[in-house]
Amino acid sequence: MKHKLLKAFVSTVALTSAITFSGSGVITSQKVSAAVIDAPISVYEVTASKLNVRSAPSTNSKIVDSLRKNDQIEIVKYTNSNWAQIKTTTTKSGVAYVSTKYLAKVQSIIKTKANLNLRTGPSTKYKVLTVIPKGANVSFLGYAKSKTTVNTGWAIVTYKGYKGYASTAYLDMK
Question: What gap in Å lies between CA 34 and CA 79, rounded to an integer?
């Protein structure tokens, strides 16, 4: 089968709790059910030698594409703890599904270009959690996301036990 997967969008979720965003973009905690959960975009790597991309979140659904070991993808959202939705060019709807059992989160380490405020939300109007010094390494978890768009101006990062939002203008995103 031809490898037609254009690009997939990834987000993270835990089995019993997840990070979600209110309309204001503030991080809140919520219990997870089988409902679809929107979360920040993050990169995952395929751990199986071959991962089937399916038309629905079930092993009984049609295989529309496949991914190879070490392919990196981004997930749009999780339908439950076992299946994630991705964007694809191989279906009419433009979406497909992969099993989360064969995905591993890719840690992305980036440096700050200046002293940087780590905030509780994706705007300068949110509270500062801590100041990250110039040249410090931070773990990039994904971009801020609302219900309809991805905000590449703000990244979700962790630094010395803090997790929050940092302006990408002050991060070396190369």
Answer: 6
In contact, 10 and 73? CB cutoff 8 Å: yes
CB contact set of 159 (below 8 Å; sequence gap of 6+): 118, 130, 132, 136, 138, 139
What is the pLDDT tens value at each position of the chain, 174 positions in all? 333 333 333 333 322 223 333 334 443 333 222 223 344 456 788 899 999 999 999 999 999 999 998 887 878 888 888 998 888 887 888 889 999 999 887 768 899 999 999 999 999 999 999 999 999 999 988 778 776 677 889 988 999 999 999 999 999 977
pTM for this entry: 0.49
Which one, of 83, 67, 3, lies nearest residue 35 by Cα?
83
Q: Would strands 137-145 and 150-159 be described as parallel, antiparallel, or unpaired?
A: antiparallel
- CA angle, 154 as apex, 70 and 87 as ends, to 5°? 40
